[in-house]
Design a protein that fits this description.
8% strand, 10 helices, 269 residues, 2 domains, mainly alpha, two-stranded antiparallel ribbon, two-stranded antiparallel sheet, 8 strands
Length: 269
């Protein structure tokens, strides 16, 4: 099994050779990938970075008694940054697993703006052990369907897609870290994904879109107001939403996307 250095991240701006034969080399390569993300992915990275920064700072204060919201908000913003870092460090599966946490944490945070009792979030068994249950998640999902049908349908569809392809081992994702060597006699099994810029662009656009959607849900659920947003929240959210839509349109205009649409039809969006 070969573990040779992998040349990846090719774009008009740079070709990066990733050293990954030792843990120390991997650490250095990870730092290099994060440091050069802006030059490799341009506005797709800058947009996602701006979104995750705004997500972490958009809440100015939280009323007493809304600590469940605070906890879920802290959880989701941490995993949103992790999703971004994993994407540019060429770890697609790790990125998707973090996005899954963002969606769930954001859903619970939204729910916690109008539900403050512990019984809405966790079951306490006879031994006093806290147990999250599927039934409670289903009740939350139903509430989200009623309150935010369009936003939650988008997030629920993405969550389902991640559950199928991003959080379980399967042949689709395994081929990101497997390639037959040029000689055809041994396998390359690198630490970093075999990928191309287009796939990372897609991940970055999606990561940003998830956070924008969840912040919009926070705004809608915050009635009456129990969290106070920063002063320019509305304008910044609209700006980020418009940027996300422009990047989506740019992706839709590429030959790559049009070819995928021909092959897979409505499954590509």
């Amino acid at each position: 099994m070969a573990t040779n250095d992998q040349v990846t991240g090719e774009s008009v701006l740079s070709v990066i050779q990733l050293k990954q034969s030792t843990i120390d080399e991997i650490i250095d390569s990870e730092a290099l990938l994060a440091a050069t993300a802006a030059s490799r992915y341009g506005m797709y990275y800058l947009h996602a970075r701006n979104v995750t920064t705004f997500l972490s700072k958009c809440v100015a204060s939280i009323d007493p008694g809304y600590d469940f919201f605070a906890g879920f908000y802290a959880h989701m913003k941490k995993h949103h940054l992790l999703a971004l870092l994993a994407a540019v460090r060429l770890h697609h599966v790790q990125s998707q697993m973090n996005v899954r946490q963002v969606i769930e944490g954001g859903a619970w945070a939204t729910y916690a703006l109008t539900h403050t009792e512990p019984s809405y979030f966790v079951h306490i068994d006879g031994r006093g052990i806290l147990r999250p249950t599927t039934d409670l998640s289903k009740k939350r999902d139903q509430w989200l369907v009623e309150r935010f049908p369009k936003n939650w349908e988008h997030l629920r569809s993405l969550r389902s897609q991640i559950n199928k392809y991003g959080t379980h081992a399967n042949l689709v994702v395994s081929h990101k870290v497997l390639r037959l060597s040029e000689g055809g006699k041994e396998w390359d099994m690198p630490f970093f994904d075999f990928t191309d810029d287009y796939h990372v662009y897609t991940d970055l656009w999606s990561i940003a879109g998830v956070a924008v959607t969840l912040m919009d849900m926070f705004l809608g659920a915050n009635q009456p107001k129990h969290i106070n947003f920063v002063e320019d929240f509305d304008d910044r959210l609209i700006e980020l939403l418009n940027q996300n839509r422009l990047l989506q349109q740019e992706m839709h205009n590429t030959d790559r996307f049009k070819e995928m649409q021909k092959r897979f039809g409505n499954a590509v969006s």
